[in-house]
Sequence to fold (53 residues):
Amino acid sequence: MTDCLTDYFRDILHHLNFICRISPHILWIATLMLVFMLTVWVIKKKNRRFMHA
Fold:
């Protein structure tokens, strides 16, 4: 049981390491997209508040 778990976690770590090594730019793009979406959402909320005022 414990061997299975350690193998499982090792596999996950291996995949994460692989992803981080192969596609850091994809992670960067995803982060930038999230920040951009959050910024747009905040601006929309502020605009709505100004319209009501």
Q: What stands out?
A: The two ends are 62 Å apart (CA to CA). Residues 24-52 form the longest helix (29 residues). The helical segments are 2-22, 24-52.
